[in-house]
Structure formats: structure tokens, C-alpha cells
Amino acid sequence: QVQLVESGGGSVQAGGSLRLSCAASGYSYNRYCMGWFRQAPGKEREKVATINMNGLTSYADSAKGRFTISKDNAKNTLWLQMNSLKPEDTAMYYCAADPLGWVCRNPPDIPYWGQGTQVTVSS
Fold first, then answer.
1. Are 32 and 22 in contact (CB under 8 A)?
2. Residue 63: which of 74, 45, 50 has the closest Cα?
3. Residue of 27, 50, 25 whose CA lies nearest to 37
4. Which end of the chain, N or C, is more open, meaning fewer C-beta atoms within 10 Å of its C-beta?
5. How far apart (Å, rounded) are the C-alpha atoms in residues 102 and 56?
6. Chain segment 17-75, per-residue pLDDT in tens
7. Minimal CA–CA distance to 50: which of 35, 37, 61?
């Protein structure tokens, strides 16, 4: 059974940093595409950053240059380092696992999700 548990969210001021973690278990971690997605109130869930089974990363335009996604296959852990945070980054952040492996699909097509961790950035 796939389990994803996020941690590391919190409240910070604009310009601050946070590091999100996602502990994964119950599947062949290194064969999945892993990603961070976020959802603000009243908005659709959107991609932040993904890393496929080969380590290829992809970022939303809003995250480029500020966020870094990384993973440790030996520890079954995914991270998202977020720097220079802005109020518009405020959202619930979710870790996701896509068995397709070579790419993370759009949220409706990804079967495995964590419970989310809240990030709040104040101005």
C-alpha cells in the first residue's frame, strides 16, 4: 500500500524559506515519478515541481529559480526546498507518486497522494 507523508510546512514571512519533506513507503519508490503540487482555496491543484524515475526535474514557471526538488532513493524521501517565498505561494502542498515513472501526469490522473502540509507566507 502506497503511503506518502508530508512534513515541513508552516508560516513564514515573505522572502523566507521552508523545506518540505515527503516520506514514502509501500512501493518501488525509484520507479515512480514524484512530484509536489499545491492547491490554494478556490483554485485547482497545480504542479509545483516533479522529478521522474531518472532524476529529470521539471518546474512550474512560478517555481523556477526559487524552488528545488530532490529525492533520495535509498531513504525513500522527497524534498522541496523553497526560497524567496511570496504570499502567492500560500497553499496546501501535496506530495504525489505516479507509477507511470518517466513523467508525472496531471493531478486527476495521479493515483497516490499525501495528506498535504500547509504553507502560509505573510507579506
1. no
2. 50
3. 50
4. N
5. 9
6. 999 999 999 887 789 999 999 999 999 999 999 999 999 999 999 999 999 999 999 99
7. 35
